Amino acid sequence: LLASASVGTLELRSAVEPVRNEGVQLFESLCTGIDFSNKVVTCKNSNTNETFTLPYDQLVIACGSVPNTFNIPGVKEYGNFLKEVSDSRKIRNKLVQCLEMASQPTVSSDERKRLLHWSIVGGGPTGVEFCAELYDFINEDVSRYYPHLMQDIKVSLYDVAPRILSSFDETLSKYATDLFTTRGISVNTEKGVKEVSKDTLVLSDNSSVPYGLLVWSAGLAPNDLIKSLPLSKDRTKRLHTNEYLQVLDEASQPINDVYAVGDCSTIKGYDLPPTAQVAKQKAEYLASCFNKTAMEEQLFEPFKYNHKGSMAYIGGWKAVVDMQKSNHKGMLGWFIWRSAYMSMASSWRNKIKIPTYWALTWLLGREISKIQ
Ligand SMILES: Cc1cc2nc3c(=O)[nH]c(=O)nc-3n(C[C@H](O)[C@H](O)[C@H](O)COP(=O)(O)OP(=O)(O)OC[C@H]3O[C@@H](n4cnc5c(N)ncnc54)[C@H](O)[C@@H]3O)c2cc1C
Q1: Which residue puts its alpha carbon closest to atom 35 of ligand 1?
Q2: Quick one: pLDDT at residue 370?
Q3: Is the CB of 63 under 6 A from ligand 1?
Q4: Of ligand 1's atoms, which has the minimum distance to the CA of residue 130?
Q5: Alpha carbon distances (Å) from 221 to 64, 67, 224
Q6: Is the distance from CB of 165 to CB of 121 less than 8 angstroms?
Q7: What is the rounded distance in angstroms from the CA atom of residue 318 to the CA atom of residue 183?
Q8: Beta bridge partners of 207
Q9: What's the pLDDT score for residue 66?
Q10: Quick one: which atom of ligand 1 is closest to the CA of 3?
Q11: What is the distance between the alpha carbons of residues 78 and 208, in angstroms, rounded to a whole number?
Q12: Residue with CA closest to ligand 1 atom 36
């Protein structure tokens, strides 16, 4: 829902759930180190920088990942990631800022075109969904509030792969590409970005493209904690676990009472994508193991992933749904996509808020106020 929140289809708080729950003791702190032999984690209070240690009986490492910049110069400084709620807010403000700056009477034609060139790097589901939400925003709201800018707005999507949505069935990927192209979105496959400056992208063919907004969604990398742990890791530096989700040491031996789930880990020899679907199933598996009694422990089955399908919104009330045995696209895909998102909201507050905001956007359009 972050892509929706970054153009105002949904409000930011409807895309998040608080971690604090009844019966859970929570410390909002950064874990900076783990001592596996003494079973202690070291933490730093994010506000005061004070450090403290916590002993554990069982440890689950679930600290996700960070956006991958591939060390391309300028990406960190000038790109906008789409990973956290704060990223969504930044993008939403930046979009309105570009529109307001482009509306100034003193702006030159070239500068207006630069401000209104919105580039997305990464043609995976996140980049595609952001493109789709951007299309809806331009089509439904920018056309109303900034009709004088419509002819200068340009959206470009870049990916080094030969096709966008490369993890989806080829027919669905082609359907999305054709639809984007018909709508005037420039889909640039087999084209990477090799350098970014404040207002220009340098592409792999050495051409320079001026831009007003850059959204970078080109993959994931390990965070500092994962990088620092002396454990067995895969090619992309995710922690290796065995099929019981136990973390493996550098000699590939399981470490007792230490587990890893989510984007920061992968099962050795059973690689699964870094998605919420995998993270949730692993978390549920581990919770069910922890809730078994010592007697039942003998009955542990290894973790088995049940893939329920992949979905991506492609704008204009259309989505693609790849369920392996059957594919859906267009409005039916959109209906499945929205129903799935609705069913996944975990609190009653968000179960009510999400359809309410969808209805408000449909009836009244998106809000374009800028809140820093
Ligand atoms: C825009 C977007 C759209 C997506 N859409 C889908 C989708 O439609 N379907 C799907 O299946 N997946 C989707 N994903 C992927 C999905 O969000 C991730 O796979 C999932 O969130 C991984 O869960 P996680 O718990 O491993 O990591 P995260 O959700 O990243 O959570 C990790 C948490 O750990 C915290 N943390 C990190 N380091 C430390 C530390 N050292 N100490 C303490 N805390 C720490 C972080 O602040 C964060 O709160 C999407 C991702 C994005 C960015």
Answers
A1: 63
A2: 75
A3: yes
A4: 1
A5: 9, 6, 10
A6: no
A7: 13
A8: none
A9: 96
A10: 1
A11: 15
A12: 63
* Cβ 142 vs Cβ 149: under 8 Å: yes
Distance CA 288, CA 301 (A): 11
Q: Which two tokens stand for residue 13?
A: 């708080």
42 lines ligand 1 (CB under 6 A): no
**Residue 198 contacts residue 78 (beta carbons within 8 Å):** yes
Query: Do residues 312 and 165 touch, judged by C-beta distance below 8 A?
Result: yes
CA 272 to chain centre: 16
Ligand 1 centroid, distance to 83 Cα (angstroms)? 8
**Is 126 a pocket residue for ligand 1 (Cβ < 6 Å)?**
yes
By the 8 A CB rule, do 237 and 221 touch?
Answer: yes
Number of H helices, E strands in the chain: 11, 21
Residue nearest ligand 1's atom 21 by CA: 276
What does the angle CA 290 – CA 295 – CA 296 come to, to the nearest 5 degrees? Answer: 55
pLDDT in the model for residue 173: 97
Verify whether ligand 1 is closer than 6 Å to residue 101 (CB atom). no
Alpha-carbon gap, residue 298 to 314, rounded angstroms: 47
Q: Shortest CA distance to 186 belongs to which of 216, 217, 209, 220?
A: 209
Ligand 1 pocket check for 161: Cβ under 6 Å: no
Does ligand 1 lie within 6 Å of residue 322's CB atom? Answer: no
Does residue 275 line the site of ligand 1, with CB under 6 A? yes
The residue whose CA is least distant from atom 31 of ligand 1 is 64
Q: Say what the pLDDT of residue 137 is.
A: 97
- Walking along the chain (372 residues) 10 residues at a time, the average pLDDT comes out as 94 86 86 97 93 96 96 97 94 96 97 98 97 97 97 97 95 97 96 96 96 96 96 95 96 95 96 94 93 68 93 96 91 94 87 94 89 72
